[in-house]
Specification:
By secondary structure, this protein is of the alpha+beta class. The chain is built from three helices and five strands; from the N terminus they run H-E-E-E-H-H-E-E. A five-stranded antiparallel sheet has the order 1-2-3-5-4, with helices on one face. The structure holds adenosine monophosphate.
Length: 121
Amino acid sequence: MRYDPTNIFARILRGEIPNKTILETAHTLAFHDIHPQAPVHALVIPKGAYVDFADFAANATAEELVDFHRTSAKVCEMLGLAPGDGFRGITNAGVNGMQEVPHYHLHLLGGRVLGRLVEKA
Ligand code: AMP
């Protein structure tokens, strides 16, 4: 899938719409989800234009990859997810993954027991 620069996270990165920032680095932005699905629900996004996990993992620079994951770990620490009672990291992709925003993002959820990963069909 081609990257759509009008997606809402691209607009956040351009400063066109506000966000509740948790942590920002040279390559990564972490902010609170606008419709939290758990007491803690953060999103971590690369600043680069990557559609989904597979695109990011295949095409990001080593510096971007390291920064994204170290920032995610720092956010887990800042929000009390790890160390703590545990959390879930989720990334949705495409139609089957029911991805709404076509800019790669990692959901970090915690603060309660989250249930099973996938509902039975
Ligand atoms: P996904 O279905 O994995 O693409 O998830 C997209 C997520 O982005 C959802 O959890 C939305 O609540 C969240 N979201 C959409 N718009 C915003 C926004 N402006 N600020 C923060 N989170 C948002």
